[in-house]
Design a protein that fits this description.
Layout lengths: L18 H6 L2 H5 L2 E7 L6 E2 L1 H11 L3 E12 L4 E12 L4 E13 L3 E8 L4
Parallel strand pairs: 1-6
Antiparallel strand pairs: 1-2, 3-4, 4-5, 5-6
Amino acid sequence: MTAPRRCADGSPRPPDAGLHGYNAQDVEALLARVSNRVDWPYGADGLHGKQAVRAYWNEQWTRTRTHGEPVSFSELDDGRTAVHINQVVRSLEGSVMFRGHFLHMHRSNAISSRVDIEAVPGA
C-alpha cells in the first residue's frame, strides 16, 4: 500500500476538489468534483454552472498548460476548505508565463459548490 500524497508542508493532501483533473487537463474529472450549479471565479462576474466551466477550461487549455500544487490546507470555521496552491502557467511550448501563490477557497461537503481564488501577497 502506498502512503497518501502529502502537501509540501507534509500535511495530508486536501480532499480533491478537481485539482487532479485540472492538472491533467481532464475537464470531465475536474467537473466531477463540482456541483452542477458551481460558482467559479473568472473576471468580475465569474462562471456559473458546469457548462460554463467546461467551455472556459476547454478553451483555456488550447493556449496554456496550468499546474497547481497544494502546499497546505485547512478547514475553516465557516465550512470552507482553504488550499494554498503554488501555480505555474506555461505556454504550449513549455516556457513559463507565470508563477504565483494562491489561496483556493472551496465551499463544499464532498462536491465544491463555490470556488474563490485569492492571490497570496508577498508569497
